[in-house]
């Protein structure tokens, strides 16, 4: 049991290392990359934007209520924006990429595997990792980074709208507290998180998809597992990165 | 000319289950070999081990100095370009048309222009008789057509070693006969080393230069076709005769009690008469001689002292009566059993 889990974890890391190596090997599958990029983007953009508005609103309302009780309304903007940019946005992006893009990637690779297409590819001397997995992982990473920008903007605007219009905050206080607390590294770390989360989503999806057990049912199980494993890893990695960031980068307000 | 494939002491298990052990054989360069065996004896596993898709626990598969079991992945990938493997159900890419499927190896491994690719692909499509279907998706055609498309794709890079996994399954007898001829023509044209895994007796009787048989986790025998076809080994005789009496049972092996009961029972009508002599297929008119024939003759004559007496006389007889292709005995007329 324990060795089984360890072995699968080891294979996951081995695949990650192999993808890292194969990404720099010629020829780069540009066409496949563009197709996958477009696919992942097309299934995630709209849901991401739709999710980020209420998410930004929830944070704005919650933080707004808290700060009013503490008598610090003027800092509502800064706090809610930080929460959106640093935490909510990369996670929303990663959940959508894993849920919408990763599951499709896993199902695609899994059904190719059980139909022996991947074996056929290997027999022809073409590495499925280089030909199929690398473009998919790069696509999830790229889309995650770009989508993170979109979600940050939409989430911040949503928070602004709810704070100013519904909670009678003042636009000036919102913006000035924003620039008082927020700094550029907050955005950097948000993007870095999105990049790492996109990588995790792509690798986990590919890893589960390349090794389905027992026919079509196995592919279904693999998709299920890939989403759950990705979520678990995301929150764990997010915790580590947040803790590290808070230790390394000095807060602006302090 | 094809490349020799040397297999030494190959052993493969899945978990506790031993598939076969200590398989040692040499596929002579440029010759056609057939691996027989009842269903479920690991013939496909053997093919996949040759090409490095599955990793046996012990032994080596040497091709041009590269060990397909233990060499670094990079060398294995390079060596695989020498192979053409025809999968049991074609293993075509479901999202691509037949044309793109067959063009895939050319686009991945060569820098040929699209017009050049088109010429080669259409030529292969014509060879396997799929003209007109090149725009279809694999899901839209019959199993036999998928199989032939898989063969066309395996051939497109002019492989030196061709492996066919049950080329006959799902084909009618006429198409199987055409396919047998196609394989021989192919061998005449490109002189590739070929291994066909099958349990079709017609293919086994007419196509190969060498035959082997897997049974009970072991290689029963491998050598010139005459050795297997004249073999008195119960397994081989039962398999070639398509009989129920013998060590092969419905569930792979019979237990000792059933075997003893069988031995005690009087011989049934399924006992065949003397085996017929059927010549090996010749290349179609207009094609060059198979260069393997001369090489094989020399090789077989050199080892004539080591083969069993029955096989020796069969070899001498066939080489005495014809100076080109050897002929072979065939198991009795099939079909008329006790059904």
UniProtKB/TrEMBL annotation, chain A:
State what protein this is by name: ABC transporter permease
Q: Which residues cross the membrane?
A: 37-61, 81-107, 137-162, 187-206, 227-248
GO terms (molecular function) for this protein are: phospholipid transporter activity
Give the highest taxon in the source lineage: Bacteria
- Name the InterPro entries on file: Permease_MalE (IPR030802)
Source organism phylogeny: Bacteria, Bacillati, Actinomycetota, Actinomycetes, Kitasatosporales
Q: Which keywords does this Swiss-Prot/TrEMBL entry list?
A: Membrane, Transmembrane, Transmembrane helix
Give the record's GO CC terms. ATP-binding cassette (ABC) transporter complex
A Pfam family per the record? MlaE
Automatic annotation (TrEMBL), chain B:
Q: Where is the composition biased (Low complexity)?
A: 258-268
Spell out the residue ranges making up region: Disordered.
258-289
Q: Which InterPro entries match?
A: AAA+_ATPase, ABC_transporter-like_ATP-bd, ABC_transporter-like_CS, P-loop_NTPase
Q: Could you state a single Gene Ontology molecular function term?
A: ATP binding
Q: Does the keyword Lipid metabolism apply?
A: no
Going by the UniProt record, its keywords in alphabetical order are: ATP-binding, Nucleotide-binding, Transport
Q: Where is the ABC transporter domain?
A: 5-241
Q: What is the name of this protein?
A: ABC transporter ATP-binding protein
